[in-house]
Amino acid sequence: MCKLNEAAVNKITEICDRYTNENTPLMMILSDIQNEYGYIPLEVQEIVSEKTGISVAEIYGVVTFYSFFSLTPKGKYVIGCCLGTACYVKGAQQVIDKFAEILEIKPGGTTKDGLFTLDALRCIGACGIAPAVSINGKVYPKMTPAMVQDVIDQYKKEEEGQA
Amino acid sequence: MVNIKIEGISYQVEEGLTILEAAKACGYEIPSLCAFNHGECNQGSCRVCLVEVTGARGLVASCVYPVAEGMEIKISTPAAVEARRASVELLLSNHNKNCQQCDKNGQCELLNVAYLTGARDDMFKGSMSEPHIDRIAPGLVRDTTKCILCGRCIERCKNAHGLGILGFENRGFETFVAPAEDRSFADSPCIQCGQCVNVCPTGALMENSEITKIDEAFKSGKHVIVQAAPAVRAALGEEFGYPIGTPVTGKMIAALRRLGFERVYDVNFGADLTIMEEGTELLGRLTNGGVLPMITSCSPGWINYAEYNYGDLLPHLSSCKSPHQMQGAVIKSYWAEQNGIDPKDVFVVSVMPCVAKKFEKEREQEKVNGIADVDAVITTRELARMIKRSGILFNKLPDEEWDQDIMGDYTGAGVIFGVTGGVMEAALRTVYFKLTGKEKEGIEFKEVRGHEAGIREASIDINGTVVNVALASGMKSAKVLLDEIKEGKSKYHFIEIMGCPGGCINGGGQPYVRSCFLPNEDDDILDTYKEKRANALYSEDERQVIRQSHNNPQIKELYDKFLGEPNSHKAHELLHTSYAAREGFNPVDEK
Known about the structure:
CATH class of the largest domain in chain A: Alpha Beta
CATH architecture of the largest domain in chain B: 3-Layer(aba) Sandwich
Radius of gyration of chain A: 18 Å
Order of helices and strands of chain A: HHHHEHHEEEH
Oligomer: heterodimer
């Protein structure tokens, strides 16, 4: 353990301390850590285990149960393709397949440059604009496979502009 | 009391019982996977014990559904029979059914319940979950193709040790039970005690069998010596139909001899040796201001726990090896020398109630000049398998005696090592003598006795010297004593810690206690088996003429001729070891 720096350890400890009065604090702690760092590796789970008395295996079980939690760092841009019923019948599978093909990753994976993560989502409540894709909170309505390349290029261009 | 009907017949049963318990009291054994039901399961998730109940919506799981006034229960309606069969078929549909390759064959609860419910048609044949198999740890094997996700192992690890090494990972069809990150037991802070093996209904968790190692040693023509631990004799009989708590020492010796072992020794001699060394160490620490409290070091599960979780308290541990390691070292030095045999040609087998001993014997710190004290460790269960495959009819064996050369004598003090409080009592008998120059009247120290998990303590006044002692078995209890030491609040001089709740009699290598396979035992056998096994050992202690380790004549001879005196340089070289703090989740290479 302890590849973590002191600041990270302090931050995680602080997050755990936020919920000391809760009966079942685990979900809240893990959500905060996921939001803060974008992922929850084993080293972090060990600290949470120490603070809460919940075993590492149980925490790991929760992290792997919910797709919202991640064990590995997510990319700078998280592409969430909705595969809920409405999006699916409108062709969402073809859209996510196209993303996977162009980015050369499987759903759940992250590109080697750390720029993109591709996630399959269940219904995000945007059935009226199906198939919907959400990238870092920005929603792209009525996606088609043909539009995928353009969307990716847009983010790549933005990235180059910043560089 | 509440009035219920089962199959139309009226009964009065206690309030608060589950249907399963109430039915049992009325003379019905509803087919279930609750042969081991101390609440240590995923609470009703297996759906095997379904019954029809008036007023309930659909069928109910009788193991969790409480009885109520006026309830009518039907067990044998076509719908209930069919539903129970379907539940078992569902469990079997994702199960590795190579039963003849499985060491659990004959003691598998799933196979038993499949027989009872008539599940044999492969009703739901289809895809199988991905297998996760761990054969790396010396003590334990995990094979998820046989797991039914009942969760008993997870609960047992938490209840016994507060550890929770195992957990459910992923979800849905991909769910499996494993240490975090699907690591091996060897790469997680697992203490390899084997309590999870004791409760697993199938062959998903098993000891790492070493029977083939012994076969190979015989084949290579080595001098194969066997030594059996005290707790084995208190439980081995169960594998051959004897009531729980029947000591089978004489028949066990006869069986070991018929299996071809060149010498059959009792680890009790090693236990007496441990008391000489550990007692002397304790007296030394008491008089020279050494690190106190001193903690016993016989239980390798406990040693693993200490190294993972209390690295800063390791100086409190006695430096003594455990009895079978000590005896192995003596066999490979003194015995080999006396018999003119090269230690490299000696193969020492230990029969243990324990799976952590399989790990212990591999420790580098245990070796003497690069030679391991012990070459193979088999559990009580593995010994039973060896006896059965050799066609030996155990109950027809005569009672025989241990081999008597060099290390045949043993005392009652050694016998009680197998139960929590035993090492403490044995040590006190000798410490009492060393401090007062005479034996304690009545010999026994009953205040430290017990057979359950938890903490016991006592203050023993030995001629004005007060020795405060405490005992714990199961790491959940041990943690309380250890945290006291850490905070500087411990008032004790001497602490005995055993890894498994109740001590070695309830070790991870002992015969399974399953009510479904023990029709002649009482209904409360899961509450009483530890006490019965403990009593088997205490009765053997009482039968011994010599009951204090320091009075064992061959122990005296060993010191006179070979070791010098307790804690001598030679004794340290052979009989003592060292410990090192370990990281629980050490980094592992990417697979």
